[in-house]
Write a structure and sequence with these properties.
- This protein folds into three domains: 8-267, 3-Layer(aba) Sandwich (Rossmann fold), CATH 3.40.50; 274-450, Thiol Ester Dehydrase, Chain A (Roll); 460-588, Thiol Ester Dehydrase, Chain A, CATH 3.10.129.10.
- Helix content is 33%, strand content 24%.
- The protein contains 16 helices and 19 strands.
- The chain has helices at residues 17-28, 40-52, 67-81, 104-132, 152-171, 216-228, 238-249, 251-258, 264-271, 294-304, 315-320, 335-345, 364-371, 481-489, 499-504, 514-528; strands spanning 8-12, 32-37, 57-61, 86-89, 135-139, 178-183, 233-235, 275-277, 284-287, 324-332, 383-392, 401-414, 417-428, 431-443, 471-477, 535-541, 549-559, 566-573, 580-587.
- Strands 8, 9, 10, 11, 12, 13, 14, 15, 16, 17, 18 and 19 form a twelve-stranded mixed beta sheet that branches.
- α1 (17-28) runs parallel beside α2, α4 packs parallel to α5 and α7 packs across α8.
């Protein structure tokens, strides 16, 4: 017996997985089946399969996140077949990850498809279903009842589907239209091979226990039968029903069964994950004669800010992300700026004429050109300087003409957001004399930064331990240090200048520039022992210095095995709390 002879069925997400299997099953039951989805080739394959069975099928490309697209799909169906008897809101995918690891963009995208797309589908179909006293079928999930590790986003969307189904059943009572919400457990489908950005990964393995995974055609038969009998709610598979039952009557037991891998060890592994972002676009080369000033940088940043998220790399940006390189030739060092730099950083009078950290100041303009270019994917505001590396190959003469190049070297996705490496190089007469790398963080604000809240009362870990024979230097950091460094470097960032401007950006007092701390420590090292070139310096910035302040610089000299050179471990820390502001090392 064919239960749906002369009926018209509309299925969203009908090109693959459960949607395809349901389309084939409705066709076997005599229905004319219209399928919507974004992948035209998959829809066409399903149409071909139905027609080979002797059935009628129609492929209607549609995006459930676009109401106009949904309305057009309904019009095309009614124009072709005159009616809709069953609407199956099946389109969806799954976002997987710990709550602390996933930013709000993933939540929004998950709900856009699984919840708002479903609601839009129902709203568009209901006027036609009311004419035929038809059926609404919502595809939920056992995840809507049962919490599971790394499944909060998906589970929340399916819990919303469940409540929408219950409410719709109540609202449609007496109208002749029924609502059936189906909650499958594990079903054979492509959903496990679709990543968090909605892209199909063909080679991704299915991590689910094979013995618990239903065949798609078996699930489809159960869904079609539930629709025919106008069941209000159905949970598929014995495993799914057991999980729902345990969660209702013994939720602690279920959490114990499912939560073995969610403790500190699992959390640490999640936090350590790093994904290198591939830059696949055509390289972009920019040549400038002069870098923009701070006012121009801020104005252009405001213009670039719309649509530029912080700590989020959209799938569209990732597909077009390209290397960027900015070059600036014929640069001369300003004697005035150099004098101010040496003064504020307290460079020794008998030291190098151009301190090792000074060339970084010359890259404010080239780096700004990268950050403000159309292809840079992150908001220019809120970038946090986290690490710095420099290498001075030979002494630079203040009168030399310099050629600069700055490039977007690498982007990494981490637990805190996206780390971006900017690589710098200084050439004189075609030969490299200095290079460096600045790492900045575009922080995902939805992820805990590890700062501020939740600090322990135990003593902070020190890079240089108290029992080691280090040199200690106490220095005072006046409140005007930020303004003095800005006059030397050209970086007039408001949070370094005054308490009032710092508060506008969320800081209680002005903070010292990280590169000032870096240069001040190198000046302290050079005052102890003249540099033996080449030198390489690596530093990590930990916590800001709120000015005015007292800091302690610790220096620990170590002999490099098998050579006459030394290495220096250094630390700038709060002498009272012991918290580190910056740690690092120098070789040379």
């Amino acid at each position: 017996m064919q239960r749906f002879t002369d009926r018209v069925v509309w299925i969203t997400g009908g090109g693959s997985g459960i949607g395809r299997a349901v389309a084939l099953e409705f066709a076997r039951e005599g229905a004319s089946v219209a399928m919507s989805g974004r992948r035209k080739e998959k829809l066409s394959e399903t149409v071909t399969a139905i027609e080979a069975m002797g059935g009628r099928a129609l492929a209607i490309p549609c995006d459930v996140m676009d109401e106009a697209s949904i309305a057009a799909a309904v019009r095309r169906m009614t124009e072709a077949w005159g009616r809709i008897d069953v609407a199956v809101a099946n389109a969806g995918y799954s976002v997987i990850g710990r709550i602390e690891d996933l930013n709000l963009e993933y939540w929004k995208r998950q709900f856009d498809v699984n919840v708002f797309g479903l609601v839009a589908t129902v709203r568009a179909a209901l006027p036609e279903l009311q004419k035929t006293e038809g059926r609404v079928v919502l595809i939920g999930s056992v995840a809507g009842f049962v919490p599971f590790p790394k499944g909060a986003v998906y589970a929340a969307s399916k819990a919303a589907v469940r409540m929408i189904g219950e409410t719709l059943s109540a609202e449609l009572r007496g109208s002749g239209v029924s609502c059936t919400t189906v909650h499958p457990a594990y079903v054979e489908s492509e959903i496990v091979r679709v990543d968090n950005d909605g892209r199909l990964r063909e080679n991704r393995k299915d991590p689910r226990p094979r013995r618990l995974v239903w065949k798609a055609d078996k699930a489809a038969r159960a869904i079609v039968l539930a629709s025919y009998h106008r069941r209000r709610e159905v949970v598929l598979s014995a495993y799914g029903k057991i999980a729902v039952g345990i969660n209702r009557f013994a939720p602690g037991l279920l959490l114990k069964m499912m939560g073995k891998s969610t403790g500190a060890k699992g959390r640490g592994a999640s936090s350590a994950q790093v994904r290198h972002v591939e830059m696949v676009g055509e390289p972009k080369y920019i040549t400038i004669d002069q870098g923009p000033g701070t006012a121009a940088i801020y104005l252009r940043s405001l213009l670039r800010m719309p649509g530029r998220p912080q700590g989020v790399l959209t799938s569209e940006c990732e597909h077009t992300l390209a290397p960027i390189e900015v070059s600036q030739s014929g640069v001369r060092i300003s004697a005035t700026h150099l004098t101010k730099f040496r003064d504020v950083c307290e460079s020794p009078k008998n030291g190098l004429a151009v301190p090792p950290a000074y060339p970084e100041c010359l890259f404010l303009g080239p780096m700004a050109e990268i950050v403000l270019s159309k292809t840079f994917p992150f908001s220019p505001f809120g970038l946090i300087h986290t690490q710095q590396r420099i290498m001075l190959l030979r002494a630079i003469n203040p009168d030399e003409t310099l050629d600069l190049s700055c490039r977007l070297a690498e982007i990494r996705e981490t637990i805190r957001g996206f780390e971006i490496d900017f690589a710098f190089r200084v050439d004189v007469a075609g030969k490299e004399v200095w290079n460096g790398t600045a790492t900045v963080l575009s922080r995902n604000k939805q992820v805990r930064s590890g700062r501020g809240t939740g600090r322990t009362k135990t003593a902070p870990i020190a890079w240089i331990q108290n029992e080691e024979p280090f040199q200690s230097i106490r220095i005072h950091v006046p409140e005007n240090t930020g303004r003095r460094y800005a006059a030397a470097s050209g970086d007039w960032n408001p949070h370094h200048l005054y308490a009032m401007t710092a508060r506008l950006l969320g800081y209680r007092r002005p903070i010292a520039h990280g590169m000032w701390t870096f240069a001040r420590v190198l000046a302290a090292i050079e005052a102890q022992r003249p540099f033996t070139l080449p030198i390489e310096v690596n530093a990590s910035f930990k916590r800001p210095i709120f000015m005015p302040a007292e800091i302690e610089i610790r220096l620990l000299y170590e002999q490099v095995s098998g050579s006459n050179s030394h290495s220096v471990r250094f630390e700038a820390r709060d002498p009272h709390s012991g918290e580190p502001h910056m740690i690092g090392s120098m070789q040379g």
